[in-house]
Amino acid sequence: AQTVTQSQPEMSVQEAETVTLSCTYDTSENNYYLFWYKQPPSRQMILVIRQEAYKQQNATENRFSVNFQKAAKSFSLKISDSQLGDTAMYFCAFTYNTGANSKLTFGKGITLSVRP
Amino acid sequence: DTGVSQDPRHKITKRGQNVTFRCDPISEHNRLYWYRQTLGQGPEFLTYFQNEAQLEKSRLLSDRFSAERPKGSFSTLEIQRTEQGDSAMYLCASSFLGETQYFGPGTRLLVL
């Protein structure tokens, strides 16, 4: 079974600076998908970024980018120019995304605080 | 396009009572998922439907839990004989086939 590990429970960053959130996962399969979700204090889970394992190019969405290291099974999220609205819990998640197995497996999450 | 909606947003019940939650997915999405999230933890998968068929159930889903999606649109999650350990946020998500899952606001359950 796949596992997702987020070893940093909390991080803090100054507004406008850059922060990197770490995630590692374990799987014996070759095809899968990785996600970062954001959950602000209001609790609605929002997709930040998605990465397909077969793609070598790292995904980017505006200020958010990932460093996907398939051999190392590492999937970190970099947030550039941090904003106060980035304060939230961030979850790394994994899925095989096949018909029989499309559930998301989440890490424990990391609480990110952006300081003004 | 409205997002995933869940009702109620909050539920307080006494131990031993039955509760039912509803999830309305994004209209064109044929997959619907239920997750449970306890404080400070990531969501844990409970079950999922493709159209009206329930394709997978987690071992977390005890016999007291049942989920339905009768017409392949909205879904209900019922918990019978609630226990204090059932207190959690219940999240619903939907997707179109293998595309990204989008989450609703959740139903927060407190069992006294």
**Main beta sheet of chain A: strand number and arrangement?**
6 strands, mixed
Percent helix of chain A: under 10%
Number of helices of chain B: 0
**Gross geometry of chain A:** globular
Q: Approximately what portion of the residues of chain B adopt beta-strand conformation?
A: over 45%
Q: What value does the average pLDDT of chain B take?
A: 93
- Measured as a percent range, the helix fraction of chain B is under 10%
Q: Give the strand tally of chain A.
A: 12
SSE class of chain B:
mainly beta
Structure description:
The complex is a heterodimer of chains A (116) and B (112). Chain A is mainly β. Chain A contains no helices and twelve strands. Chain A has strands at residues 3-5, 10-14, 19-21, 24-26, 33-39, 46-52, 60-61, 64-69, 74-79, 88-95, 105-106, 110-115. In chain A, the strands form three sheets. In chain A, strands 2, 5, 6, 10, 11 and 12 form a six-stranded mixed β-sheet that branches. In chain A, strands 3-9-8-7 form a four-stranded antiparallel β-sheet, with no helix packed on it. A two-stranded antiparallel ribbon of chain A has the order 1-4. Chain B is mainly β. Chain B has no helices and eleven strands. Chain B has strands at 5-7, 10-13, 19-24, 31-37, 44-50, 53-57, 65-68, 75-79, 88-95, 102-103, 107-111. In chain B, strands 2, 4, 5, 6, 9, 10 and 11 form a seven-stranded mixed β-sheet that branches. Chain B has a four-stranded antiparallel β-sheet with strand order 1-3-8-7, with no helix packed on it. In chain B, strand 5 and strand 6 (53-57) form a beta hairpin. The model of chain B has no long low-confidence stretch (mean pLDDT 93). Chain A binds chain B through residues 4, 35, 37, 42-47, 50, 91, 93, 97-109, and chain B through 31, 33, 35, 40-45, 48, 50, 55-56, 58, 89, 91, 93, 95, 98, 100-106.
